[in-house]
Amino acid sequence: MGRTSFIPTAGLLLVAAGLLLAACESRPTVATTERPPTVAPPPVAAGPAGAPAVAPAPDTVDCTAQLRAEESPADSLVRIGSRHYRLLLQAFADSARPLSYRPDAGRELTNGQADTASVRGYDVRFVVSLRDSSGHKTVFRRQLRKRDFTKAVANDVLVPSEPSRPLYLGYSPALDALLFSYRFVIPETDVGGRAAVALGRQGQLRTVSSSGDYGSGNPDCDPVLAPGGQAALTCSEVLRAHGRPLSLVKPAAHLIGARFLTDSALLVVYEYGTWQEVHYPAETMHAPNPNVLDSPVPGARVTAAFDATELVTTPAQRRALNAFVMSTGGRVLKSFRYPGWQQELSYSLPRHFVAASRTYYFLNGEQSIFLIPKSHPAAVVELPLKQLEKFRAPRRAGEVRFMLSTVGPQFDFYVDSHNPRQVRYRRVAGGD
């Protein structure tokens, strides 16, 4: 008769306990349908004794890339941890709740009719519902109204704006929150505002934060999760798992751009000055005011008096360091002078990311180009264009070509992917 193998009862208990412990220690992965957070490179794996360690995968994600979508689908499948859920988003006007706002009466919303000088509109119900993957069991249902956004969006924009579904940005396990971007636009215009909203996994309203203007005057910034989901940028502050939000608002400064560089570092650029009302009398000739941006050109005749709010700067402010590489903890890792931003309708930081060398390149007008290595973002390097080698064909092996432009000139850059500081360039438009 053959012998039957068996495991004693105590052994079974030990095996079961080990399996239970392993299950409790596992960490779920996170993904979304809109912009899944980039998982940080895995640690170096230890092989058998004497075997070389396995190198981590290179981190080739461009953290400065712009978000293209403005709103999410009404019904989508998302993954939070190891489970899938259905995310339902609704936004519709509530005709039973008319709103009005009088600029001379403060910033409060008023229900009911108003005089002709008031801005008028209707309330909106924004509904976010999270259900299980079958759509039968509701995890939470959160409703927001316009009054929930009064501290983040100006009322003269908020009141007349029409319904628009939010953009789902993803779930952050560190914040234990789902992040959304809400857009408010005055009908038939390009004037509006944005707000970022963080909801807990059970639908708790965590944060409503300003994300700047929509369209004209908008900083080069998108509300977004950090690549590994450890923090979130709302464009007015950085939400962090531990501690209070890190405010990006500075006195006597206008935010030009803010972009993550890595999971724990970001670049923030300001233009210093104060917003002041500037009065131009009628029927007078004006020379340009060097302390006022966009002041009248020489010889322009003003045929009627008008007032404008403009950013007034001083010579000292124009010389000050205005670009900062910061940790998400708020520590300034590097500061430098970067006047190379440009503005058409919104502000922009001309840039390109070379994945092969994991290096960001920021064009500084016609003067220079800044290099920021992703592996060490505090090591900012400025290369003056006049010191770079002019491009002459043929293109060399390993060179990566990209184009960057200022308001006028455009440049082609050819970068050695093995040596990020080895750069050739040529001007392709806007002069020799």
Provide tags for this entry.
mainly beta; five-stranded antiparallel beta sheet
Notes on the protein architecture:
With 432 residues, the chain is mostly beta strands. The chain is built from three helices and 31 strands. The chain has helices at residues 9-25, 155-158, 315-319; strands at 75-80, 83-101, 110-111, 119-132, 138-144, 167-172, 177-185, 191-200, 205-215, 224-225, 231-233, 237-240, 246-247, 253-260, 265-272, 274-280, 284-286, 300-302, 306-312, 323-327, 332-336, 342-343, 347-348, 351-354, 359-364, 368-373, 381-384, 389-390, 399-405, 410-416, 419-429. The strands form nine sheets. Strands 1, 2, 3, 4 and 5 form a five-stranded antiparallel beta sheet that branches. A four-stranded antiparallel beta sheet has the order 6-7-8-9, with no helix packed on it. The longest helix has 17 residues, at 9-25. The relative contact order is 0.09.
Reconstruct the topology from this structure.
Elements lengths: L8 H17 L49 E6 L2 E19 L8 E2 L7 E14 L5 E7 L10 H4 L8 E6 L4 E9 L5 E10 L4 E11 L8 E2 L5 E3 L3 E4 L5 E2 L5 E8 L4 E8 L1 E7 L3 E3 L13 E3 L3 E7 L2 H5 L3 E5 L4 E5 L5 E2 L3 E2 L2 E4 L4 E6 L3 E6 L7 E4 L4 E2 L8 E7 L4 E7 L2 E11 L3
Parallel strand pairs: 28-31
Antiparallel strand pairs: 1-2, 2-3, 2-4, 4-5, 6-7, 7-8, 8-9, 10-11, 11-12, 12-13, 14-15, 15-20, 16-19, 17-18, 20-21, 22-23, 24-25, 25-26, 26-27, 29-30, 30-31
C-alpha Rg, in Å?
27 Å
End-to-end Cα distance, whole Å, is: 96 Å
Helix content: under 10%
Report the mean per-residue pLDDT as an integer.
Answer: 83
Shape: globular
Largest sheet: 5 strands, antiparallel
Total E-strand runs: 31
Unreliable stretches covering 5 or more consecutive residues: 1-53
Helical run tally: 3
Structural classification: mainly beta
> How large is the share of residues in beta strands?
35-45%
Signal peptide: 1-22
Keywords: Signal
Region (Disordered): 30-56
Protein name: DUF4221 domain-containing protein
